[in-house]
Structure formats: C-alpha cells, structure tokens
Write a structure and sequence with these properties.
25% of the residues lie in helices and 33% in strands. By secondary structure, the chain is α/β, with parallel strands linked by helices.
C-alpha cells in the first residue's frame, strides 16, 4: 500500500469480481478496498468535530484526506514534502490551503487553531519528533482546542514490517505522551490489515 494516500493509486481501488448465480447467470460484485474505507472513515471522524473551526491536517500528504474534511471554517494541510504539497495544491485548490511545513514547527501563532488532526502520521517519524509534534500541537491550539490523532500498532507488540513506519507505539506509550499535554476524551479502535489503529480525541489541558 502506498504511504501517501492517493485515490487513483491501485492500492486504494476496490475489486470487481465475476460470480455465477445458479451456475449459469453471470453476476458482477464489487468488493470495496479496506484501505480506502479506512481513509474515508478517519477523515469523516475528524469532520464530526470540524464544523465552524480552524483545522490543521498534518502531515497531509497529497491532500486526499484533507479534501475529505467537511465543515471547517478554515482548513490547512501541512506536509514536509514539497512534491506532495504541489500535488495537493494542483488537485484540491478550492478545498484547503496547502503549505510546506514541519511537524515540529507548525507555521501558526500560539493559541490560534481550534483543531489539529494527525492521522497515520506519528508512526512515520522518530520518537523525539513525535514528542515535539505533540508539544507543537498544544502550543498552536486555543484553550480547549482539540487534537485528533491516530496511532497504529500490532497486538503482539512486534513491528508490523511496514518499511515506512519508524516508531509504532503500543497504546500505553502513545497515551503517556499525549497525557503530558492533553486530556484523552475518547478512543476509537479499528482493525486495518495486520494492525489495530487507535483514534484519540484529545483536549488541551488547562
């Protein structure tokens, strides 16, 4: 599966299959792609909390996920890759503003953002970068602001084998990091492939 989600990538396409009804009537069935379903689900999850808010999606990749966020007053996608941002700007210019930036230095003033989303991102960076990101999210969020973050892991504690994943956190590890700056309001759990993904809805600690 491509790590920069793109709806045109074959890794995210469903599959049509020819079946036979009563052994002689041809019948086409469509099997939705589980990875595509997972992408749509997680951005729908963010959309449930985005209405009328300023929302930052980081890392946003090529913008597909960001384009699925609905209802935000202002929506900005951030990614460290200039190539990815250029593709996002070309493909989704009317949906969001896209800019090159780092998870450890978000280009926003203190207490200026309502919601920061980090979906399928923290496992792609070293642990120290992940810690810095969580601190940065707290810095840019307004009092009572929200962080919505996903964190995939394997139930046996072993690395999944995904070569793009630098640090896969067990739930107690990521919850300890989040707990330094945020109150965890809710946790959703979903199985995707050989991994479980925890979705954390957090609020800045006062």
């Amino acid at each position: 599966m491509s790590e920069r989600a793109d709806p045109e990538d074959p890794s995210f396409r469903g599959e049509w299959r020819l079946r036979w009804r009563r052994k002689f009537i041809p019948w086409l069935t469509y099997s939705p792609n589980p990875y595509r379903r997972a992408v749509v689900w997680r951005y729908n999850w963010v959309s449930e909390h985005s209405r009328g808010k300023s929302v930052v999606d980081v890392p946003c990749g090529m913008g597909w996920g960001t384009s699925l966020i609905k209802g935000a007053k202002k929506l900005v996608g951030i990614d460290i890759s200039e190539e990815a941002i250029k593709k996002a700007q070309d493909k989704y210019p009317e949906h969001a503003e896209f800019m090159v930036g780092s998870m450890t230095k978000l280009p926003f003033k203190d207490d200026s953002i309502d919601l920061v989303a980090c979906l399928e991102g923290i496992e792609h960076v070293p642990e120290d970068v992940g810690s810095e990101f969580i601190e940065e999210a707290k810095r840019v969020l307004k009092p009572g602001g929200e962080l919505m973050l996903s964190s995939p892991y394997t139930e046996d504690g072993e690395h999944s084998g995904n070569p793009y994943h630098i640090k896969e956190y067990q739930p107690q590890e990521i919850e300890a990091k989040l707990g330094k700056h945020f109150l965890i309001k809710d946790v959703a759990k979903r199985k995707v492939g050989n991994m479980v993904v925890n979705y954390y809805h957090c609020e800045v600690k006062q």
